[in-house]
Design brief:
Helix content: 55-70%
Strand content: under 5%
Structural class: mainly alpha
Number of strands: 0
Distance between the termini: 74 Å
Number of helices: 1
Shape: rod-shaped
Largest sheet: none
Length: 46
Amino acid sequence: MPDNWGYVFSAYGLAAVALLGYWRRLAGRAKRLARPAVRAGNVRQG
């Protein structure tokens, strides 16, 4: 088992990087959804 610790740490590191990337993606989507949508038809000019 001691020979496999490098692989174990690498797998945990890879999983952590993937989860952090996914978390950032979800946080960005949540921010975009929380903002009110501004559409060109709703803006009065004049």
